[in-house]
Amino acid sequence: MFRKLILPVLLAVVLPACAVQAPDANRESSVVGERAAAVALEQLGVPYRYGGSAPSGFDCSGLVQFAYRSAGKPVPRTTKALWEHVQNVDRNRLRTGDLLFFKIDGRMSHVGLYIGENRFVHAPATGRVVSIESLGSPFYSAALIRAGRP
Fold this sequence. Notes:
Layout: H1 2-21, H2 25-41, E1 53-54, E2 57-58, H3 60-70, H4 79-85, E3 87-88, E4 99-104, E5 107-116, E6 119-122, E7 131-134, H5 138-143, E8 144-149
Helix pairs in contact: 2-3
């Protein structure tokens, strides 16, 4: 009888304690992504600058690196290195802070940060500023080739 009671009691005490102590990596990743997206949104209106990775001017991957570094997670600097660094995410499972990769002028050459509601923030091109775009626009919908989570 005693042995029959011990296992349920141990399970009732030990398993909840383990669950409380185990970190939730998905939630932590989600929080970092949300912080990175918030940092990127604070840069709205900052001019595009090729090679830029500071609030004086950003290129697309510089904005991503700055936002994630500010959120406490270092990521690579270039679009290609970011592409190689992330885990694939299905478009229907996007979370705030996921990276979106675009094929422009025949090659993968642009990255932005997903901010929810089918929108993303990015540093688009020379002569433009950090801005928000819709994935529903014909141009970006056709250009999107991959999403990934750092």
